[in-house]
Amino acid sequence: MSNFIKEFWDSQAKRFGSAHDASWGDLEMISLEVDAIVGSISSGGVIVDAGCANGFSTRLIADRVKPSKLHAFDFSGEMIAQARESHLAGGVFNVNVFESDIRKIDLGDGVADACYTTRTLINLPSWADQQTGISECLRIVKPGGLVLLSEAFWEPLCKLNALRQVVGLPALVEHDFNRYIKIERLTQWLTAQKLQFEIHDFSSMYYLGSRFIREMATDASAFPGFTNPINKDFADLARKYPSCGSIGVQQLVVIKK
Predict the structure, then answer these.
(1) Per-residue pLDDT averaged across 104-117, rounded?
(2) For residues 189 and 186, what is the distance between their CA atoms, to the nearest angstrom?
(3) Do residues 169 and 142 make contact, with C-beta atoms less than 8 angstroms apart?
(4) Of the four, 9, 169, 237, 248, which is 20 to 30 A from 210 by CA?
(5) Which pLDDT does position 1 carry in this prediction?
(6) Burial letters for 92-122: b for 16+ Cβ neighbours within 10 Å, e otherwise?
(7) Could you tell me where the DSSP H helices lie in 25-101?
(8) Residues sharing a CB contact under 8 Å with residue 159, sequence separation 6 or more, in sequence order
């Protein structure tokens, strides 16, 4: 892992503590992401959160899925410290919180029924590293188990930016610590591995509203970050009509081992 990426996430943990902002300021998008993951995982099994950050969304998912065992890890020691002290503390459920790298997960083969990521692979420095991370997630789930990748993708970002360009809005860009995944590249790789998979576009309506219509319907400059109240309106709409032109940068890939 490139040191500057790890250093950035360590600093986020120190800055935001147990708040959702440690992993992402967009709380509405986190909520939609949690809904998408929960809707794809069966209750009562062993699950792994591969890249749990400070445990904010980990706890939200676990409270709804009620796993028999939860393994949660992150490569940032500062994030893990926050997870242990806040969201994953207290012994409410059977949880194993530890520091690890998704490219070499400190768990045995086939220990889980499901493993999921939330914007974890995009923090790896290359596509080769991302493939290794996916392979590790597959290794630790049982035959017939699921690997769920909630990640940011390049092609929807290009579509969204084309739409923004039409009305003169500046292009949205990747952060320095992100490497968005190309859907075409991922689908080709998964197909070559003879894996069954589905891609769930759960966020396009939200991105249409929060990254496009918001700029024209409201004075976006009056609401720093993701505080614009119109975001919640579009999150509610996305729960009814999620798919909208495949411009949702955040999508969920569900892979069956």
Answers:
(1) 98
(2) 5
(3) no
(4) 9
(5) 56
(6) eeebebeebbbbebebeeebbbbbbbbbbbb
(7) 27-38, 56-65, 77-85
(8) 245, 246, 247
